[in-house]
Design brief:
Elements (H helix, E strand, L loop, with lengths): L2 E5 L5 E6 L10 H14 L38 E7 L2 E6 L26 H14 L3 H7 L10 E3 L9 H10 L3 H8 L1 E3 L11 E3 L4 E4 L4 H5 L7 E4 L5 H4 L9 E4 H9 L5
Helix pairs in contact: 1-2
């Protein structure tokens, strides 16, 4: 297997480490896309209208001759109505409940019970994650999405001490020494979204930056939380959507040495 250098928090090479077998998986873009969409669909928030919306007023009046309240021979359509006034057997009605009436229900409203999520087989999902991991080690693919002018070897692996960093400033210094200054500047840029999303809480579009992968819960998770576009995840929590944002593979990944060792020793996603 390929060996990659391990960097210190000062940005210097200290040793080498062999990439686990997961990095040798063929890159299957179709499979990665399927798994990433399955993850994103599971995050969909269910929505729908109240089952009684538009149905709380009005009723279907009788249509038979000589029935009290009947609409027979009134020259009006057979629409559910509500009575505004009556004098004996004479009524003043207005349409209600129907989709074509004022304050009536919708004809085909969205329903909460609709299934938005997509299912994917376990083995298929694991293979997609392995394929997405392998794509992060292909420099030509990763350089299409990220600014890697000062980076020559990927994935980037950092020594154990990196997981114990507690300050955001220290994280920035480490990433800068690894040649990712331009990448952090790139992810700060944002643009206004085209279309109605601007009115629905999605006004700005941000870019995906590096993915930090750690072995366990550590201070680095809190220290790196405020970087725009940068995500941090434990190695056991990896999924296709994190490794391939927008279902497009080859994201820049930064591994801690213990996380990479855990990936190989525990044979995760195999």
């Amino acid at each position: 297997m390929t060996k990659v250098p391990v960097f210190s928090v000062a940005g210097e090479r200290v040793s080498e480490i062999e990439l686990p077998v997961q990095f040798s998986e063929p890159v299957r873009e179709d499979l990665i896309k399927r798994a990433a969409l399955a993850v994103m669909s599971a995050q969909h928030r269910a929505y729908g209208s109240d089952p009684l919306a538009g149905k709380r007023q009005g009723k279907a009046w009788p249509k038979r001759r000589r029935k009290f309240g009947s609409t027979y021979s009134k020259g009006i359509s057979r629409v559910a109505r509500k009575a505004l006034w009556n004098k004996g057997e004479q009524f003043g009605w207005v349409g209600a409940r129907g989709g074509q009436t004022v304050k009536g229900m919708k004809n085909f409203p969205p329903k909460v019970e609709k299934q938005f999520w997509e299912n994917i087989n376990k083995k298929e999902n694991r293979k997609a994650i392995r394929s997405a991991i392998a794509a992060t080690s292909v420099l030509d693919l990763v350089s299409k999405k990220h600014d890697l002018a000062a980076v020559k070897i990927i994935p980037i692996v950092i020594e154990d001490k990196f997981e114990s960093v507690k300050k955001t400033r220290e994280v920035y210094i480490v990433l800068k020494k690894l040649g990712l200054k331009n990448e952090l500047v790139r992810t700060k840029e944002r643009k206004i979204r085209a279309g109605k999303g601007r009115m629905r809480g999605r006004k700005y579009k941000t870019k995906s930056g590096p993915l930090l992968i750690v072995s366990k819960s550590c201070p680095l998770e809190k220290a790196a939380a405020n970087f725009v576009g940068l995500d941090i995840v434990e190695v056991k929590g990896l999924n296709a959507a994190l490794l391939a944002p927008g279902a497009v593979p080859a994201r820049l990944t930064i591994w801690s040495k213990p996380a990479l060792e855990m990936l190989g020793k525990e044979k995760l996603f195999t």
